[in-house]
Task: structure prediction
Amino acid sequence: MNEQKTTRRKFMRDAAAGAAGIALGLSPAGQAFGTKSARSDETKIRNYNPRMEYRRLGKTNLMVSAVSLGGHWTRAEVMKQDCGQNRRDVVSRAIDVGVNYIDACCREEVLLYCKALRGRRDKVYLALSYASQEVRNDGFRTTGKLIASLDSLLKESKQEYTDLWRITCNERGGSHSFDTACQIVGALEKAKKQGKARFVGISSHDRRWLEFMVEYFSQIEVVLFPYTARTKVVAKGGLFETVQKRDVGAFGIKPFAAGSVFSGSSAPDDPHAEEDDQRARLVIRRILSNPHVIPIPGLISTHQVDNVAKAVTERRQLDSGEATHLDRLMDQAWATLPAPYQWLKDWQYV
Result:
């Protein structure tokens, strides 16, 4: 607990220093793997590993591993294991390969990840959300209710603060009223002021609403939105241009299109395991070709952690055969998307 209090005091000093750096127009650390600027101050990169790429997370100025660890990892074969042990193993391997960001967006994920991180919390940036008790639930659409939800999650997970509080908004964010948007931002501001969150942001599946929120509210520092191997950045206008203009950090969720890019079950002995590993690396390589987005897949096993870490070290530019193969895989993935994930088709352009 004393270590957490010390860290909390330190992060508030660091946050002030970082804000001053932005105000003075100081150059951020390099954004591309292997560049001189990215390596020039590697001692300040949390859990640095020379084989991992690190990307600047917008105006937070955090240097975050180019592939990080998300939630929603559970598939049928994992349920045969102890989930707590599974997360401890996966977190250990992720730390070993240089991952330094973990994202958890529901209570169960938060509790499991916080237990897995005991004794090594300083190795990663931890993002929290309590999706069922945030604005998707119409009983939690005021600043007071949102702060109370964060307080309860921090207490239950034995955390004094979170590195990133990113409120999980409606899939169709445009269904929120303007008043709800203001309540969201009010809660984010309050959490930062009270030292409960270092940085703040939102997630949604609604591209136009996210664009509005980033454009209208300068308090938003990070956004999470779907980004698959089929996603392309439009030449002019749109969400990604707004995110870049406002220097907002971007995490890509659902990189594997809700698992639709795979043929197998992700079990180690699955006959499609090797082919699915190749598919996963192709997807990650294509997504990483955009230097301003960080995919956060929900990795099921230590093997999958090693596989995406390998993708980081591979060339980004796909050759013609690889590109054709991946395009066919995405055609198949789009054709087999489960009914609850048809909305992913709306995210072919950002």
